[in-house]
Amino acid sequence: MTVASAVRRARPAGRAVRRVWPTGRRARKYMPYYLAIAPFFLLFLAFGLFPAAYSLVISLQSWSGLGQPSFVGLSNYEQLFADDTFWLSIRNTLTIWALSTFPMLFTALVVAALLNSAVRFSTFYRIAYFVPNVTSVVAMAVLFGSLFGTQFGLVNGLLSVFGIPQVAWLSTPWALQVTIAVLITWQWTGYNAIIFLAGMQAIPAELYEAAKLDGAGIVRSFVSITLPMLRPTILFVLVVSTITGLQSFTEAQVLTASASTGNPNSGGAGQAGLTTVLYFYQQAFNFNRFGYGAAIAWAVFLLVVVFVIINWRFASERNRIKKADR
Amino acid sequence: MMPHTTRRTFLAAGIGGLGLAVLAACAPGAPASTTTKKLALWIWPNGLSTTVLDGINGNVSGSGVEISEIGGDFKQKLVATFIANSGLPAITGVKGEDMPYFLSQADRFIDLNDLGAEDLQADFLDWKWQQAMTADGKLVGLPIDIGPTGWYFRRDVFESAGLPNTPEALAEAAGNWENLFAMGTELKAATGASMLLSISEPFSKSMGQSTTQFVSEGGDFLGEDGAVREAWERSVEAFNLGITANVSDGSPDWAAGVTNGTLPSLLGAAWYQADLKGATDGTSGLWGVALTPGGSANIGGSFLSIPSATSAENAAGAFEVMKWILEPENQAQGYADAGLFPSTPASYELPQLTEGDPFFDGQKTIEVFGAAAQEVPISYTSPFDGPVSAPYYNELTAIEATGKDPEQAWKDAVSAAEDALEQAKRG
Q: Is residue B20 part of a domain?
């Protein structure tokens, strides 16, 4: 018998112990609840938290996937800082994020406001706007590849009606980024509109009625009531969009796939479609540099954290100013 | 108390059920390995002929074979199973592009020479055989199929441009790249059509024709001069001549081009004809195929391997199965069923390959591809070739997409490739 276990045995079952792991009647009372939530946490531990934590270990190693990993300290991160392609991928990601998020949020707000007003068949419209979000991204990217084709794409066809010359959407760097951003916008606008709609429906109707009595029109009510009351929802949507936007991968990968034969997942024209996560995928899974890939993944994580903090600060700062005004 | 009990029972049942589901999901191969002693064979969809696979159990003595078609990222799933070191199949497919990587981990596989592969070597194409062999002579795979290249062309468009339009005449007229470029200029002037797909095409095909690649067997950088520089200059010349279409392979614009005749000439592997046939409506009979100008190359083609976790007894059985699957008759069947071009020249005499193809105006394409298959050069591909070659393609694309100065692009490509090799060696 070791000393430690002897001490443990000798110690009376005090309050502190019971608080950590309830025994007796309390345990019997709460056990079903713990059991009920356990499956998620067990699966999350095994397939979420552990791999994420382990990737931090891998990022400190040099590992080809099958061979023996060797510890290299921070050298993957040092390499990352000096890697032009990595910084290019960060620029691409931010550009695509900005090009998609702001139009998306604006459109989603407008769509939500329209759905919130008394239109007929509103359930149908809500479902219709949500459909892009549950459609396979790969299928949509293939479709967008056709729509944005240079010679026979519908988009160029439409532009030519207005006398605008053909744009090589998928083989010009800036146009490629626009195409990816349009695809992301298309995919997420309906989703965010539904969240905005839920936020709008939580706004008390009396506010609008009072505003109406005071002679406020639709636009005035929207700007003075809907937008301020919706601030928490807007913040939530912005944060979630930032997290997903900075991790965009599939859209870019599928749209540039045909340009990448022999040079897989390189990001297409001028590497403009090389998002950071796509770069991670290429390094780890095409080039078998798992340590370096893990380092890129953690860089993305840091980037997301920084952006979320900026978003949060920005939004709560303005909340505070508003409150101080009152 | 009644509702409480039922709720708890329900919960327990639910959790129990979930636990079972998790267990089941974690052990997909378990029942097969415990209840029967069939050999497991992993292959991707269409990687082997189903007719041949169905025939294994009747034609090869032994305990039989259990086939798993694994979709998605095959290599990654195989690597993950290697790391887990359990549930490995007795036989697995290995894609040609992944072979250099697996060769660098050759101890994960059984040396097929120990099982008598040497006796089969004469039946297979030598250059393909060499691709699965380590520097010290260990053989980790038997070739399934190959991808010899040919020059696909539209007879009608070539005729209207005043160019030769039969395979024989073309092979004669354009035996090398210079002649191809000259014909490309004529084609452009006469019809506006492009001879080549993109600026990267002469580069990738020239590298395929070369006996050296980007990294030497000793790990030295070869991207500064020699074959790489020659291929680069060829690509830039083609681009400057204006004979490249600047279209992505397989894109909607590509499909439109090959159908309407603005893209009447393509360099591609034997399997590329399936892409063409699928994308071109109403052009059947207008196509032909000739030998690749400047020499034949190979794109793609896979192997069958035996992981070293396989027991000696199973390995012997597995090798018998592989031997049978890859017999010339069965390879010919694979060509008929799945377009897998045989790695055994004896197959080229068999009816599945010698038939004329109406898509190519009745041409017997084996006369071109069979000859090409024999001509592919032996060359060493390093496991680092992927990251080292990438900068060249990126910079060529930059010339095409943004008009970057070709000499600057070359300098950037060389320095990026050198860095990439340095980094890849460090891991």
A: no
